[in-house]
Amino acid sequence: MTASWSPTARETDALQRHAHVQRLSRVDAVWPWLADRHGAIAAVDAPHAAHPERFNFGELSERIATAAAAFRRHGVTEGDVVALFAENSPRWLVADQGLMRAGAADAVRGASAPVEELRYILMDCQATALVVQNAEVWRRLALSPGQETQLRFVLQLEGEPAEGTTGWEAFLASGAGSDPVRPAGGREAVATVLYTSGTTGQPKGVPLTHANLLHQMSSLACVAYPEPGAPVLSVLPIWHAYERSASYYFLSCACTQTYTTIKQLKKDLPRVRPIAMATVPRLWEAVQAGFEDVLKTFPPSRQRLLRAALANSAAQRKAVRTARNLLLEPVSSGGRLRAFGSAALRWPLHALASTLIWPKLRRQLSGGQLAYPISGGGAIAPHIDAFFEAVGIELLVGYGLTETSPVVSCRRPWRNIRGSSGLPMPQTEFRIVDPDNGQPLAFRQRGRVMVRGPQVMAGYLGKPEASAKVLDAEGWFDTGDLGMLLPDGSVALTGRAKDTIVLSSGENIEPGPLEEALVASPLIEQVTLVGQDERQLGALLVPRAEAIVAWAAEAGISVAPDLGGQPGDPALLRLLMRECNSLLKQRSGSRGDERLAGVVFVDPFSIENGLLTQTLKQRRDRITSRDQHLIDALYGR
pLDDT tens-digit profile of 352-374? Predict the structure, then answer.
């Protein structure tokens, strides 16, 4: 069974309105078009950058043209690969698009990545030049003389240039007044090389063509279509496939993009009041946890009022979904009729809260006018989805991989099935196959997710054997994810093949849905399940210390405030294990082998300690390696 894109009237209209992108031959060709039609509109703003800058589309187009000429002056030629190690800023965008205009491709990574990874990328892509954010990145690289000689030049975007590098302003000056650069390569030329996150093993280079990226810039109009000048907030790493495609798309709509950081996000949301923002589940989890923290400071009477309003609105919205058959599981006509009655009964109180309470809360949480909160990089936990839906923020969950540019599916505002990853993007096909024999499966049968479309890469950089493992002769890409197709064509993910935990009984456990159920607890900040080749599952828990201490005190257990990095008090862990198993038992379709034999406390997982990727996905192999001694203690070894 294959599911493919079937456009609605509104999608067809949106694509027609955005047809100028479909006519482009290269990504970098969009800037002159924008300058001609929307030159006076603010394009990018970076108030928190080392060098705060703000350009309109006319100025941005001029800078990109100047940078392209400067790259050519410094020896960059058609087909070169230039490494770009920097974080979000207008200068990153100008360098990125200047390289494309010069006919080159950039191999990108964040400046804060481990130095070994940066060196690996530099050598793997055979970079002929290097762009770094600042002198510190260049010093950290500490390249050998042989490695340095392969580089024609090193460009430094910020700060006083270090020895052996060229500063940004001097670089731009070298391209000023030059003739316009017109690259010969078209849609099939490589535009960029992105590297897989390396959650397991060495990262692989993914060459993406202009055609791959142009498909994203065109097809995202099916999900969101903001007007020119609409404010957009950029918080994810700009070099990551997801944020990058989203940024290109929103800029191609002539939106005004403001670069922020996780630390500044809370302040920038009410200041910028974005219409759209590319996000990841962890960000929404943090926002919801912040709401809970603020709520605890209110008087008890106000807490009860808000919680009652939230519970009623969540139930009302769920009833509406059920009545409209927007759930993963099919609903009978009788069930839909009952849900319609429940939605009607709860409507008056929900309408009151939607008028008096939720608008104020939305202004605090998202700025108040967030129409397109597109979440990628993983599944949204059901309780997070329900919370934001209750207060009037419809999260549009998408799905994709670096190898697919990345978006292959996304929920639509008018077809938002909670628990799914949405409908296919234009010209995109999905197929679910049996993991053992590769035979196609029917709707609602769970198997391996295969995808085919214009956004799929042609193969990994210099790794034909790895490419052959994931791409077949017909262009189907094996995502490595497990999932199922719904009758309307939506895809729902159920786990990651490589994350599957196989117990000693032979039972296969998908940890993702179980972990989502556990982090719904106010006691748990983060969790990773373990148990490969063991009789039962175990859990590595990052606790919410204050909540745990208070909860334990109610049960007559006194514990120290510092809970991480050690197995924990045995009595507390037994109590917490029972609480976790109760949560797991309440899951729809719960199985007896989806229970914990034990839990231990561990230190947090973060980008800084290398246990989360830049899009906040867990690096399970590194987590289990760090906490192996605690896993051994959990299983009595």
Answer: 999 999 999 999 888 999 999 99
Tokens found for residue 184: 């010969």
What are residue 129's DSSP bridge partners? 82
CB of 127 closer than 8 Å to CB of 118: no
In this prediction, residue 566 has a pLDDT band, given cuts at 50, 70 and 90, of low
CA angle (45, 376, 419) in 5-degree steps: 140
Q: What pLDDT sits at residue 610?
A: 87
Half-sphere exposure of 588 (CA within 13 A, CB side): 5
Domains detected in the chain: 26-185+227-274 (3.40.50.12780), 284-497 (3.40.50.12780), 500-634 (3.30.300.30)
Reported as a single tens digit per residue, the pLDDT across 95-125 is 999 999 999 999 999 998 889 889 999 999 9
Q: How far is CA 62 from the centre of its chain?
A: 31
Name the H helices within 54-177: 57-73, 90-101, 115-124, 135-141, 145-149, 168-175
Distance CA 233, CA 256 (A): 8
Q: Which amino acid is at 153?
A: F
| Edge-to-edge order in the sheet of strand 396-400 | 53-56, 42-46, 256-259, 231-234, 276-279, 372-375, 396-400, 407-410, 423-424
DSSP 187-220: TTSEEEEEE---SSSS--EEEEEHHHHHHHHHHG
- Longest Cα–Cα distance in the chain: 78
Which pTM was predicted?
Answer: 0.84
Element (H, E) at 293: helix 281-295
How far is residue 357's CA from residue 75's CA, in Å, rounded to a whole number? 59
Instruction: Report how far residue 238's alpha carbon sits from residue 275's, in angstroms, rounded to the nearest whole number.
Output: 18
The phi and psi torsions of 383 (rounded to 5 degrees) equal -70, -30
Helix/strand/coil for 376: coil
Give the lowest-confidence range in 198-212, 401-415, 575-589. 198-212
Backbone angles phi, psi at 133, to 5 degrees: -70, -45
Amino acid residing at 252:
S
Gap between the Cα atoms of 393 and 403, Å rounded: 30
Amino acid at 163: E
pLDDT band of 535, cuts 50, 70, 90: confident
DSSP notation for 487-533: TTS-EEEEEEGGG-EE-TTS-EE-HHHHHHHHHTSTTEEEEEEE-TT
Alpha-carbon span 527 to 508, nearest angstrom: 19
The C-alpha atoms of residue 615 and residue 235 are separated, in whole angstroms, by: 10
**Mean of the pLDDT values across residues 595-606?**
93
